[in-house]
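HUMAN: Forgive my ignorance: could you write out one protein's sequence and backbone structure tokens?

ASSISTANT:
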Amino acid sequence: MTGNEAFDAIIVGGGHNGLAAAGYLSRAGQRVLVLERLGQAGGAAVSAQAFDGVDARLSRYSYLVSLLPRQVIDDLGLNIRLARRRYSSYTPDPSHPGRGLLIDNGDAGGTTASFTAIGAPAGEAEAFDTFYGNCRKLTEALWPTMLSPLPTRSEARRLAEAAGATEAWDAVMERPIGESIAASLQHGLVRGVVLTDALIGTFAQAGSEDLQQNICFLYHLIGGGTGDWDVPIGGMGSVSGELERAAREAGATVLTGAEVTGVDPLGTVTYTCAGEDRVAAASWILANVAPAVLARLRTGGAASRPEDLNPNHTLEGAQVKVNLLLKRLPRLLDQTVSPEAAFGGTFHINETWDQLDRAYRTAESGAVPRPLPCEIYCHSLTDPTILSPELQAAGAQTLTVFGLHVPDRLITEANNEARRAELKAAVLSSLNSVLAEPIEDLLMTAPDGRPCIETKTTLDIERAVGMPRGNIFHGGLDWPFVDDGTPLDTPARRWGVATGDDRILLCGSGARRGGAVSAIGGHNAAMAVLELEGGS
């Protein structure tokens, strides 16, 4: 075994959060080693040529950016461009797919008319705006706390009250979000559009008592205080690429193809790289892997660790992801909306209030929901740079589909291939239910003759990027505050990155205030280390 290399900090996992932590620590003069199992850094926040011989670089696992703070971009000198989408969403009416709800941020009158067109009662558009306006008071109050030591629940509530968001606090933090949605809105399709913010990647119902859907809802609205989800120009790989550049230029060593095999709480990490077994030591180990993965890697004694005891960190993923490359956008059954407008935001399919509930119940019983609730993102409409000039000239477009209520419990090693085929068929069927032409006819063909479509189950995602049970948040999300009386007596606890081992900190999506492409977990872990260093 080769070693012992000595560093101030070793970061296990080279995803975007680990790269952010490396950038901050290296800029502070620390000697940092980042170990990434895959052949490139970035983890799930990467772009990839998904189809052999086709020059299109898709954001394969994560698509949009909302939670990445401007402060992190400025602190690390990142050249990241984010494009705002004019359209928020389009949702065909499954009972009458020749009509749909288009939320157009650039045309308030048109949006109101769209509410009327789907048969929503008078005042529903205003109620929709009021609901989100109240939520925005809450998110604007809490967003600034995400890069600070953790507030307590009482402190966070006082911030909400000072911002006039007491009503929103009660709706989001104290009771199932479904109650507030149902009380505020009447139309099933409109209710469903709102509820989806609470369900992306989370297997829950509107009225689930554990409030996991509420936490998911808050994180989908809190980004920037506004909840806007933007398109990264150049694809998600441009975000991780900039974070890697910043880390390397600051002096960090980033090793790819380096698989960690053990993490010792005394400060050593064993790993394999280039066919060699190696060992490195550091004062601090930052885990940019899921807490469940860290528990498997940890060696040494049997000290209890809070991440082992947190039931959130064992929650399953609940989605299927499908990437497609099309010759052009499909025509819609709703001829009043152009495909460019419909696919210009988030395209919701079969996601009414009742459909979402039925899909949950079907999945809970062990079957794939039909119709499958789906959401679609078309990156190339906003950012065609991910396509070659030839593909752009030909009118090609990418679609990324996120199918809801597909919990990991439906997928096993034995049935994964069959389930993948079943889920692909369910996604295509759901899509075709609102299109004027079969989506299959529009799929581009790779040079090897295969259609340009790929399907990723929760097991596929776990195998590819190490997310246990395919959970895109590394486990269930936590509130961005702690209960009153929670010990905050160490820097790691104050920053929400503590484990049961003093020298091991969480720095990824499994940290409190982790989840999505944000770099918040990486920032906060780095701040805890620097505070610990300053106090030592």
The chain has three domains: 2-45+67-81+234-313+473-535, 86-99+316-470, 121-223. The chain has a mean pLDDT of 96.
